[in-house]
Amino acid sequence: MPLLVPELIASGNQKTEWQNKLIGKKLHESTSDSSNFAKTDLPKDHRVLEPGAMATTDHNPNRLTVHVGNDGTVTNVDFK
């Protein structure tokens, strides 16, 4: 059985790509523009975590996790 390293599955390039698309923007139901990103444009396998939100501890290296601040602005993204 091969060793699976999460950082290699969700490559740094993929994380950087999503960081460039999302950080500093607010998530919106259906509109993407210079200050908003449409939730419908996120990958099927994603979750949005607000400050203090509970999250499952299951590891899914293909799931995009979007962290938002109190005002709804994206502060970080990762694959967990």
Which secondary structure elements does this structure contain, and how are they paired or packed?
Blueprint: H1 6-9, H2 12-22, E1 26-28, E2 36-38, E3 46-49, E4 64-68, E5 74-79
Parallel strand pairs: 1-2, 3-4
Antiparallel strand pairs: 4-5
Word description of this protein:
With 80 residues, the protein is α/β, with parallel strands linked by helices. Helices cover 19% and strands 26% of the residues. The chain contains two helices and five strands; from the N terminus they run ααβββββ. It has helices at 6-9, 12-22, and strands at 26-28, 36-38, 46-49, 64-68, 74-79. The strands form two sheets. It has a three-stranded mixed beta sheet with strand order 3-4-5, with helices on one face. It has a two-stranded parallel ribbon with strand order 1-2. The two termini are 21 Å apart. The model has no long low-confidence stretch (mean pLDDT 87).
